[in-house]
Inverse folding.
C-alpha cells in the first residue's frame, strides 16, 4: 500500500504505541483486500463497554483486553487517546447503564463496565450508548469518511447523507479510530457506490411495519454486495421510517448503501444513481413477497399465545415514536404478568421526560430503558412468551427460545398484547 509521510510516522510509532499497532492492522487489512491507499477517518462509532465476547480474553486488565481484542496484538499497549480530529461515539452498551436499577449485570460486572467506559471517555470517546448515532449528533457530512459496526448506521449514513463508510466490524472500527485511517475500499470509493440493481417496490409500504417487512423480504432477493436503487410507487419515507427499513435491510441482506432517486443525495435521478451504467438487473417486490417474508420470520403460534415479555425499540426509538406510544398507553395498565421494555437513547429519554412521555409509560407499568437492548443485555430469566416489533430483534433472539412462542408484529399489536397479556 502507498502510505503518506504522516501515515508512515504513525506506523513507525511516532504517534504512540496504540496508534502504531492500529495502523499495522489497517495496513495488513488493506493489503488483504487489495486497497492501494488509506483515507482519513473523522467519525467513529465504537462498540465500547464490558461486552460478553470480551470474556474470552481471560483478563480484567483494560489495556491487555483492548490490545488483544481491539488492536489484535499480543503486545500490551495503553490506550491514551483516539486519533486527533476523529470524533468518537460509543455504540450500544452491554446493559442499560443509565438505568442501573434495571441492569442484569452483577455488581462486579457493573463496576468493570464502568471502568471500561471511563477509560474510553478518558481517551476521548463520547459515551453515547445507542444504536442510532445518526439521530443523536453523529453527523458525517457528504464525502466524510466514517467507521461503524452498527448495521443500520452504515446504511443510513452512506445512503441519506452521502458520508462514506463500510460495515467493517468491531476491530477495524477501533483501529481506524485510534490511528485515524482506514483502507480505501468498498463504500469509501466513489466508483463502488454506483447502483448495481434496480428494485421496483410494488408492495405499497406505508407503516414502519410495512417497511420492516420489505427490508427482510429483500434479504432473500438481493445478490451479494448489492447497491439497490429503489423505484416504484411508494409514499415518501421519513428518517424514522428509514431507520426501521435500513435496520432490517442491513441485517437481512448485508446492504451498506442504497439509492432512492429524489430522496438520497447521490441519486437526483435514476441515471445518476447508476453512474450512467446500463444493463443492470431489475427485481420487483410484490405484496406476496412481503407476506411470505412475514410468514417466514414470524414463527409464533398462529392465533394466540400467552406472553410474559414484550420488547420495543430495535433500533432505538426516536422521541416522536415515544410520543405515539404514550398516546396508546395513557390511562392503561400493562398486564401484571408481562414485562414491557421500551428502548431509546439518553437524549431521547431526556426529551421524553421533559414532555411527560416517560411518566405515562412508567405509570402504565412499562420500563423506558437506554444504552442497550435484549441482544446485549439478555432477556428476563424464565421468559417463555416474547413479542417484538422488529425483524432485526427477531433475528437476534437466542437460539434456545421456543420459536413457537416468539411473536412478531406491528408496534400497535405489541402494545395491545402487553396490556392484554396474550398475543392474538
Amino acid at each position: 500500500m502507498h502510505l503518506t509521510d504522516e501515515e508512515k510516522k504513525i506506523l513507525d510509532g511516532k504517534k504512540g504505541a496504540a496508534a502504531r499497532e492500529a495502523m499495522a492492522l489497517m495496513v495488513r487489512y488493506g493489503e488483504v483486500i487489495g486497497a492501494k491507499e488509506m483515507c482519513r477517518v473523522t467519525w467513529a462509532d465504537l462498540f465500547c463497554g464490558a461486552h460478553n465476547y470480551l470474556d474470552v480474553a481471560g483478563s480484567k486488565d483494560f489495556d491487555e483486553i483492548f490490545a488483544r481484542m481491539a488492536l489484535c496484538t499480543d503486545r500490551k499497549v495503553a490506550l491514551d487517546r483516539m486519533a486527533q480530529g476523529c470524533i468518537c461515539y460509543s455504540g450500544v452498551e452491554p446493559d442499560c447503564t443509565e438505568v442501573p436499577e434495571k441492569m442484569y449485570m452483577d455488581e462486579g460486572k457493573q463496576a468493570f463496565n464502568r471502568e471500561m467506559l471511563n477509560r474510553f471517555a478518558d481517551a476521548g470517546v463520547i459515551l453515547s450508548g445507542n444504536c442510532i448515532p445518526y439521530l443523536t449528533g453523529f453527523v458525517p457530512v457528504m464525502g466524510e469518511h466514517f467507521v461503524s459496526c452498527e448495521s443500520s448506521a452504515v446504511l443510513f449514513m452512506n445512503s441519506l447523507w452521502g458520508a462514506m463508510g463500510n460495515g467493517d466490524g468491531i476491530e477495524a472500527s477501533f483501529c481506524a479510530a485510534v490511528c485515524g485511517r482506514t483502507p480505501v475500499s468498498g463504500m469509501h470509493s466513489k466508483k463502488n457506490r454506483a447502483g448495481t440493481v434496480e428494485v421496483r417496490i410494488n408492495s405499497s409500504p406505508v407503516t414502519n411495519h410495512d417497511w420492516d417487512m420489505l427490508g427482510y423480504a429483500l434479504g432473500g432477493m438481493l445478490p451479494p454486495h448489492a447497491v439497490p436503487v429503489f423505484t416504484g410507487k411508494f409514499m415518501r419515507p421519513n428518517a424514522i421510517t428509514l431507520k426501521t427499513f435500513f435496520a432490517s435491510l442491513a441485517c437481512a441482506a448485508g446492504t451498506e448503501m442504497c439509492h432512492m432517486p429524489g430522496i438520497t443525495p447521490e441519486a437526483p435521478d435514476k441515471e445518476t444513481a447508476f453512474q450512467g451504467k446500463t444493463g443492470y438487473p431489475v427485481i420487483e417486490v410484490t405484496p406476496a413477497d412481503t407476506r411470505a417474508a412475514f410468514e417466514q420470520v414470524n414463527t409464533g403460534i398462529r392465533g394466540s399465545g400467552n406472553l410474559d415479555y414484550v420488547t420495543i425499540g430495535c433500533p432505538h426509538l426516536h422521541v416522536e415514536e415515544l410520543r405515539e406510544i404514550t398516546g396508546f398507553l395513557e390511562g392503561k395498565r400493562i398486564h401484571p404478568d408481562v414485562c414491557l421494555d421500551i428502548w431509546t437513547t439518553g437524549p431521547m429519554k431526556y426529551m421524553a421526560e421533559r414532555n411527560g412521555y416517560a411518566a405515562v409509560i412508567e405509570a402504565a407499568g412499562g420500563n423506558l430503558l437506554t444504552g442497550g437492548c435484549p441482544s446485549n443485555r439478555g432477556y428476563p430469566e424464565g421468559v417463555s412468551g416474547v413479542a417484538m416489533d422488529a425483524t432485526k430483534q427477531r433475528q437476534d433472539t437466542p437460539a434456545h427460545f421456543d420459536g413457537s412462542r416468539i411473536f412478531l408484529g406491528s408496534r400497535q399489536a405489541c402494545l395491545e398484547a402487553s396490556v392484554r397479556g396474550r398475543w392474538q
